[in-house]
Design brief:
Blueprint lengths: L6 E7 H5 L4 E3 L11 H16 L6 E10 L6 E6 L1 H33 L6 H28 E4 L2 E7 L1 E2 L5 H8 L5 H10 L5 H21 L6 H15 E8 L2 H13 L6 H9 L1
Parallel strand pairs: 2-4, 2-7, 3-8
Antiparallel strand pairs: 1-8, 3-4, 5-6
Length: 278
Amino acid sequence: MPSTDEIKSESNSLSEFYKSNNHYQIPLHQREYDWELTQLQEFWSDLINHVDTPETEKYFFGTVILVKEISTEYVFTVVDGQQRLSTSIIFIIALRDFMDEKIQNIEEKISKLDSLEIRTQDDKRELNNLNEQKYEYRDDLKGLEKMIWIKDTNDLQSDEPRLSLNLYNYDFFKKEILTKETTSEKFTKLNELEDIKKKDEKIRNCYLFFHKKLQDIDSDTTMNSIIRIRKIWNSFVYDFMLTEITINNLDHAYKIFENINNKGKKLATNNLVKNKLY
């Protein structure tokens, strides 16, 4: 067994990070999700610039500090990096909902063509094309689902979210964001919420931000929207790199956390205290 102070550092794409067997838990009392529109827009601009820059290098998405839970093989506590991890998983969920809606729209078109008593050659060609698209989109959807969910190590018949948010955002994230719905259904539901708590508003706004960006692309008649969205997705999951620092000692992990955060934009004292206490 490695010593409790062993530190491991490696660079992984988001695809590697989210398609591993690992389950990531944000500590219950770590600060709530707090990215504003400014951070979301900066994230989106960086992503689009990366997509549109030919022969670009990998994009450094940031550092995450993880504590390996000794009692389990695949469970990690997120000491630092919860904001970008939460943002990335919400983006992936928005992509999943978008693809799910595309599949439902295609199935409706297929159903109408199947119901025709007499089909023209154009009908048959369209039906073949729609079926091909449906299977391609289903493959996309499966890939996204694998990044969002992981098999529960205690019950192989059930799925668990790969990223568990903290106590402040957990219920809203699980009930309103994580659930599988078409992007239109979820957009309507989130906009009609009347009793949303202040601590959950930024989670909702994050999803709605990505929903709008995807819809803007989809409604742009100057491009093939699916090809464009696939390109954005592939760039995000394969080119955005995380530096993972993994350690078995929780106290040591928080020392690294404080060193990193106090050299950049300082966290409020109460947030540093929360991290130490919990």
